[in-house]
Design goal:
Layout (H helix, E strand, L loop, with lengths): L2 E6 H18 L4 E8 L2 H5 L9 E3 L2 H4 L8 H10 L1 H8 L9 E7 L4 H16 L4 E7 L6 H17 L2 E6 L10 H21 L16 H8 L4 E10 L7 H9 L10 H18 L13 E8 L6 H15 L4 E7 L4 E9 L5 H41 L1
Parallel strand pairs: 1-2, 1-4, 2-3, 4-5, 5-6, 6-7, 8-9
Antiparallel strand pairs: 7-10, 8-10
Helix pairs in contact: 1-6, 1-8, 4-6, 6-7, 7-13, 11-12
């Protein structure tokens, strides 16, 4: 699936940088173009792979390259005012070769959480390709302001994109991990999961051809209903023919005297079925009740000889039963290496406790803000009245 990636804000830019590294490492071919947008000069300078010509600084008239200080309302205003600056960079993208836009943003800061929905709305007006969001939720220990920003931004971002793919930092931070080390690892986790999904179907000249190809239309159809999506991923190391003596011994144990495989097909089928279950019931990018998903996609990845079409079908059937949805698609994506994996995309999920908590925080904050504003106005009015009485005395 060919994507135009646009990272908005610090987190968004770093993740897009990681996507470029991943795409190059696996020869995925899914990144057609990459742009980073920010209000802070230092954040743009810290990127390594996004071309300098595609690093767009906005809001110079308002914040002079120093960022918006986690003020997402200011971030939205700046994005609205300078949207033409971003469009100039997008004009150089060969959009006729792009299957979709992916706007990536951390939802706890100011530039990304405020600006990403503005950009998504702009892209929706101009282009016919789907516009997806990849929103990264802040961990709860990052502070109340970031949680509040995420609560405010989430509903807007969902409304402005065709589908919002979500990664929840809260579910992926490790105890005792440094902030910098934690974010680097989390960014790699994000890119591995979503990158493998988007790379599926992009076949190079020397690549093995899948039995059941997962092309861009499969992903687009799975995401077509809108709403919120999450991804699960599970892998298992296998001994391939390139693994040497151990592999040969293992193969001989599962063979008949006539040379035909006795257990190979069954083992591959069982492995994939198990991996689909692990991916679905394990740690999702956004924890949720799996049964609340409207649509789903199962992708098996790994060495071609280890991928079982029957295993994919069994995994897909199992996911249909878990979700109660008939819109569960499936396919395989042959890759090199010695790992067999299963990616499970769940789209249109509705039973998400983390989002419910975020929305509650946003509602409570709005009520608190209105109370504070009312008290402030009453206090100011009282102060003015007192000042008038003092003037009359003197």
């Amino acid at each position: 699936m060919k994507l135009a990636l646009i990272g908005f804000g610090q987190a968004g830019g770093k993740v897009v940088d990681q996507f470029l590294a991943y795409d190059e490492r696996v020869d995925g071919g899914f990144v057609e173009a990459a742009i980073a947008v920010n209000t802070a000069t230092t954040d743009l300078q810290g990127l390594e792979r996004v071309p300098r010509s595609n690093r767009i600084l906005i809001g110079q008239a308002r914040v002079n390259g120093h960022g918006v200080g986690a003020d997402n309302e200011l971030g939205a205003e700046v994005a609205e005012a300078d949207i033409d600056e971003v469009q100039h960079a997008i004009d150089d993208v060969p959009t006729h070769e792009v299957d979709a836009f992916l706007v990536v943003a951390g939802m706890g800061g100011g530039s990304g959480s405020g600006g990403a929905p503005v950009l998504a709305r702009h892209l929706q007006r101009i282009y016919t390709q789907p516009v997806y969001g990849l929103g990264i939720l802040p961990a709860t220990d990052e502070g109340g302001l970031y949680t509040l920003n995420a609560g405010r931004s989430f509903r807007t971002f969902v409304r402005e994109v065709d589908n919002l793919l979500v990664f929840d930092n809260d579910a992926w931070r490790s105890a005792g991990e440094s902030v910098e080390g934690g974010y680097d690892r989390i960014n790699r986790e994000i890119v591995e999961r979503f990158g493998l999904l988007f790379a599926a179907g992009e076949v190079g000249s020397g690549d093995a051809v899948a039995e059941s190809v997962v092309d861009s239309s499969e992903i687009i159809n799975t995401l077509s209903g809108g709403g919120v999506s999450t991804i699960g991923y599970a892998t298992e190391t296998v001994e391939t023919s390139a693994s040497g003596l151990l592999s040969s011994l293992s193969s001989s144990k599962g063979s008949k005297h006539d040379g035909t495989d006795l257990d190979t097909d069954g083992a591959a089928t069982n492995r994939l079925t198990s991996l689909v279950r692990k991916a679905t019931l394990g740690r999702l990018t956004l924890p949720c009740d799996v049964s609340s998903a409207d649509r789903g996609l199962v992708v098996a990845s790994g060495p071609a000889e280890e991928l079982s079409r029957k295993g994919v079908e069994r995994g897909r059937t199992w996911l249909e039963e878990e979700t109660g949805s008939m819109e569960i698609r499936g396919g395989d994506y042959p890759t090199g290496g010695d790992e067999v994996g299963a990616i499970v995309l769940l789209s249109g999920v509705t039973d998400v406790p983390r989002i419910d908590r975020l929305q509650q925080v946003a509602v409570e904050a709005k009520e608190t803000t209105e109370d504070v504003r009312t008290r402030s106005q009453e206090g100011t009015a009282a102060l003015v009245d007192t000042s008038g009485e003092l003037d009359a005395l003197f």
